[in-house]
Task: inverse folding
């Protein structure tokens, strides 16, 4: 196991963009080489060595474990596009942590700012505190957001998490978010995401959901008028086959979206439930 | 022969709101080079012409603040000082641009790229959410002439043109006679969706009075009803379900419908998601009839700022050049957000007055650092600036291009000379670019 320790030694004045703090960039590099990697501070190019003390050295990608210490609340893009290895962040972290990552693991021992785990393609992001808006969301204008992987947030997350999430049962891609509580527009434009909220949710969750499952174990501020109540269930089967037990009220929707998946039979009024989006709220 | 005392300029484009009326007539006193009469314009547009006359509120020489009071200086000195501030800054902000012409906006982009700064226009506090939604789900839209000639159902959603775009109704959307709407107002059905009983609502055929900030739920319900879903509720967003169903029937049965939406949709609780849903609604209405939508743009050339920025950088607002290439992320690089987080260390404001419109906390942060303004009038922003560069007012004192709210470019006209030493926005930005380049040794 190649362990690399980064400790912030100098306060930064502007947001620090440190997309080079990834196992991919550190692989096979000595501490001196790592210090030379670029970070952006305002409109200036600086190096990791200007802001961090670096100890240890990088080996094989999947063996690498990066530990980052210090006030990182405005250090952005740690773990961007990483494909393996592990990062442990021992403080609050800035925006875009772990965006576009495709493998490996990030553990944030603190809270994360907006866009944590945006467009995740694999791997695992765990946040022990709260997270900002757009957790695991698609970047502006993208029609495919998070496609695989797992995001776990212990605390509350902000608005519009997992927008345009895109999962697929045949392709075995199950993008999943587990969080303590959530803001509004959770899983908007979802195409097959799995979202489990341990606590309460704000308004408009599952708006424009085409496929996917949202499970809320607490209360929902307001359910959209385009959701149809189906009845009570005792057991929920998630897309990846996992089972959640408990008393839930099942809704289907969003029926305002024009997609074949949310078909309602015009004669019988029956809802094709097999491929429709589902919302479960604790009864 | 008697010497002429008055010069009349006809077919003038009004540089006030996004309607960009193109039929104004302006009389100029030749001797004093002053506007003395404006015909055809609305009240607010007319006022802008009169406000361009030399007065105590108009700057005509470059000013620099020294020990709390302004001192008149030469252009060279002012530009030199401004360039020094901008070069020294590590995260400067360039904001505004929506009330000037496109050529100047292009120069703004050039300056931002050289400086590695954040570049933003006023869309970030007005129709930015519309742009986000358009990037997500597209936009079925058209030019205003189509609406004038064809539309028989006009929906004003969260907009109040009687006050914000006073001639919109008479030129494009309501009273005007069109090729297929020969009887003007009588051939059109007007719906206003607004929590308030506005003056636009008072001239409408139906006023749908919804609860504030619940637009999303109403659009969502309309979309569901449109798709044949029975809704299990007595009222949606404060509107009785029967009335919602009636509205859906009205929408389906028109020949050519249009939604004009304003700040009531973009800057209330759900922001861009309101527009997202409205666009999806319009898209789905096209299964039944012809339906389009158009944002009611505020500043006369904010559409132009979006056009120019998109053409030159790929993004319409909230752009960051700090890495040398443009990046885009509203919320991260939009001016209110960077000011709230206190992330900048100098700002250049062009043709805008953020101090009147931004949250107080963000304005406080802006005033902490050097502030340069290119601004013709005394405003809350300019009186707190360190350097004031006085421009000629585009569309009155210099020519240029502007984009109407439906993105039709029109050529602005010059009707009179600028007072004092005023230069055009474009010339000022060119001087700044030249000075910055020289100091950087490029």
Result:
């Amino acid at each position: 196991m190649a362990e690399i320790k980064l400790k912030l030694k100098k306060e930064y004045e502007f947001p620090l963009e440190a997309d080079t703090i990834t196992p991919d960039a550190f692989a096979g590099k000595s501490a001196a080489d790592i210090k030379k990697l670029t970070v952006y501070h305002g409109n200036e190019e600086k190096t990791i060595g200007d802001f961090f003390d670096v100890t240890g050295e990088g080996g094989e990608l999947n063996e690498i474990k990066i530990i980052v210490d210090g006030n990182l609340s405005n250090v952005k893009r740690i773990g961007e596009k990483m494909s393996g290895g592990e990062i442990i962040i021992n403080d609050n972290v800035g925006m875009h942590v772990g965006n576009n990552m495709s493998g490996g693991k990030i553990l944030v021992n603190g809270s994360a700012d907006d866009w944590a785990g945006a467009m995740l393609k694999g791997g695992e992001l765990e946040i022990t505190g709260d997270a900002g808006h757009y957790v695991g969301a698609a970047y502006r204008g993208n029609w495919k957001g998070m496609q695989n992987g797992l995001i776990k947030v212990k605390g509350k997350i902000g608005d519009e998490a997992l927008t345009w999430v895109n999962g697929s049962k045949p392709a075995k891609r199950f993008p999943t978010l587990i969080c303590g509580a959530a803001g509004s527009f959770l899983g908007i434009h979802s195409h097959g995401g799995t979202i489990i909220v341990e606590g309460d949710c704000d308004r408009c969750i599952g708006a424009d959901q085409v496929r996917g499952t949202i499970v809320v174990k607490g209360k929902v501020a307001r359910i959209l008028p385009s959701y149809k109540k189906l009845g009570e269930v005792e057991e929920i089967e998630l897309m990846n086959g996992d089972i959640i037990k408990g008393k839930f009220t099942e809704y289907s929707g969003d029926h305002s979206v024009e997609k074949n998946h949310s078909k309602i039979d015009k004669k019988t009024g029956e809802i094709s439930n097999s491929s429709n989006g589902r919302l479960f709220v604790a009864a | 022969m008697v010497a002429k005392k008055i010069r009349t300029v006809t077919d003038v484009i009004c540089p006030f709101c996004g309607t960009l009326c193109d039929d104004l007539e302006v009389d100029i006193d030749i001797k004093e080079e002053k506007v003395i009469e404006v015909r055809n314009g609305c009240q607010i547009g007319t006022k802008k012409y009169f406000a361009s006359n030399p007065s105590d509120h108009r700057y005509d020489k470059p000013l620099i603040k020294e020990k709390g009071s302004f001192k008149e200086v030469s252009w060279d000195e002012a530009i030199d000082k401004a360039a020094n501030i901008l070069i020294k800054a590590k995260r400067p902000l360039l904001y505004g641009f929506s009330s000037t012409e496109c050529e100047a906006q292009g120069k703004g982009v050039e300056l931002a790229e050289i400086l590695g700064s954040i570049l933003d226009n006023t869309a970030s506090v007005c129709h930015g959410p519309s742009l986000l939604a358009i990037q997500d789900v597209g936009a079925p839209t058209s030019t205003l002439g189509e609406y004038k000639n064809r539309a028989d159902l006009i929906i004003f959603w969260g907009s109040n043109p009687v006050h914000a775009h006073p001639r919109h109704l008479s030129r494009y959307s309501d009273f005007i006679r069109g090729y297929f709407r020969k009887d003007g107002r009588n051939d059109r059905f007007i719906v206003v969706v607004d929590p308030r009983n506005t003056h636009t609502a008072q001239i409408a055929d139906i006023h749908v009075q919804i609860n504030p900030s619940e637009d999303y739920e109403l659009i969502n319900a309309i979309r569901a009803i449109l798709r044949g879903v029975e809704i299990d509720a007595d009222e949606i967003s404060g509107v009785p379900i029967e009335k919602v169903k009636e509205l859906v029937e009205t929408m389906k049965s028109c020949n050519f419908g249009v939604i004009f939406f304003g700040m009531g949709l973009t800057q209330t609780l759900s922001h861009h998601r309101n527009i997202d849903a409205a666009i999806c609604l319009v898209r789905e209405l096209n299964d039944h009839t012809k339906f389009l939508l158009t944002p009611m743009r505020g500043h006369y050339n904010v559409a132009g700022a979006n056009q120019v920025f998109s053409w030159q950088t790929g993004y319409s607002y909230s752009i960051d050049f700090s890495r040398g290439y443009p990046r885009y992320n509203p919320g991260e690089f939009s001016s209110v957000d960077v000011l709230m987080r206190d992330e900048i260390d100098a700002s250049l404001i062009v043709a805008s007055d953020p101090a009147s419109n931004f949250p107080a906390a963000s304005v406080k942060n802006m005033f902490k650092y050097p502030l340069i303004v290119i601004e013709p009038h005394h405003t809350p922003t300019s009186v707190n600036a360190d350097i004031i560069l006085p421009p000629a007012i585009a569309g009155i004192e210099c020519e240029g291009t502007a984009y109407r709210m439906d993105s039709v470019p029109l050529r602005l006209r010059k009707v009179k000379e600028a007072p004092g030493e005023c230069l055009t926005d474009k010339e000022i930005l060119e001087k700044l670019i030249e000075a910055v380049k020289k100091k950087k040794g490029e």
